[in-house]
Design a protein that fits this description.
Elements (H helix, E strand, L loop, with lengths): L7 E11 L10 E24 L2 E13 L9 E4 L2 E11 L4 E8 L2
Antiparallel strand pairs: 1-2, 1-4, 2-3, 3-6, 4-5, 5-6
Length: 107
């Protein structure tokens, strides 16, 4: 993986909940933390319009390529260019050389 192609910066974030100590039966407060800020390459970016049961919908899909980072989960999100993306698929490149993150925009 050439470092010159890693021309974008993305944040990988994770949302957790803090326990509610006053009323343990109620859910806690969600807290978003940044897991890592990494350089990335945008492989593919597309916007697809298709018909769903509720009418027309527009979905933005994007593929990022980053250097190997241990601990990235499908429940994590990516912050890029002022937008949030849910990670849909994580694919290993080589033997721990890099990761390909397929994501879709959060509406």
């Amino acid at each position: 993986m050439r470092s010159g192609k890693l021309d974008r910066v993305i944040d990988i974030t994770r949302t957790t909940t803090t326990p509610n100590t006053d009323e343990p039966w109620e859910p806690g407060t969600p807290v978003t933390t940044t897991v890592a800020t990494v350089r990335a390459q945008v492989i593919q970016q597309s916007t697809e319009e298709f018909m769903k049961s509720f009418g027309e919908a527009q979905e933005t899909a994007i593929v990022f390529r980053i250097r190997w980072l241990d601990g990235v989960l499908l429940t994590d999100q990516i912050a890029y260019d002022g937008k949030s993306f849910d990670i849909v698929e994580i694919k290993e490149i080589g033997r721990r050389r890099g990761l390909e993150l397929r994501a879709k925009a959060v509406n």
